[in-house]
Amino acid sequence: MRHPIRFLIPVAGLIALVACDSTSDAEVSRALQDVNVVDESNLNDVMLTVADPNEAVAYFQRSLADNPDRIDLMRGLGLSMIRAGRPTEAIPAWQNVVAHPEATPSDSVELADALIRANRWDEAEAVLDSVPPTHETFKRYRLEAMVADSNEEWGNADSFYEIAVGLTTTPAGVLNNWGFSKLTRGDYRDAERLFTDALRHEPNLFTAKNNLVLARGAQRNYDLPVIAMTQIERAQLLYTLALTAIKQSDLTIGKGLLQEAIETHPQHFEEAVRALRALEDDAT
């Protein structure tokens, strides 16, 4: 009974071999190409996230030299230039993307972002105006709010900030921006509320902590807010409060806050020491 079983094994192997031989060269080439695309896609993702930004720029530039019409590589170049802090170079990269037949409204939003980073606000506004109103994304409305802020169109800015907050699960950054907008307008109470909201979402956001102290100081409230802070952050926030007090001619309070900042800081706090000396020199 065992002989037929031993006979079937090589026959099955032969069938498999014949099946492999019948696969066309084109099919093999296509399969290998698919594998290469997957590998390249993974590499592109790595370049856009964890790779050194300037190395990523060089990688996408080389890839585009071989595949100049690939919009995914064009986008990768634009995003990498932004990550590398090179917005002026990112602008023509995103302009090329927007001119591509496969471009989407999101690409125009990225171009507007690059223009804002390069301080070209009028051009950014024109690009955003070209984006269809049906394209409702967090980034689009965040940029719309920033442009409205730059034009001192406060009603529009508030409206856009509010929409942007509702379109993200991580609103701390935009709440901080909105609060700073209120701060520049002199609406200190609303600014304080927005900075507090930002810290509720992201307790370690030091920019919001510093802005919160500025908003309170502008109301002559020189007590530190009850928020999580390290010893170094406490010293820095006391220093911010001190400068705010001095700016408002509350010199005695400012001097006391500077002394407290120096005593609180675990290392030598050079900026606070210089400010205290200057204050004491002016008093003599």
TrEMBL record:
InterPro entries: TPR-like_helical_dom_sf, TPR_rpt. Keywords: TPR repeat. TPR repeats lie at residues 172-205. The keyword Nucleus does not apply. It holds the Pfam family TPR_16. It comes from the Bacteria. The keyword Mitochondrion does not apply. This is Tetratricopeptide repeat protein. It comes from Flavimaricola marinus.
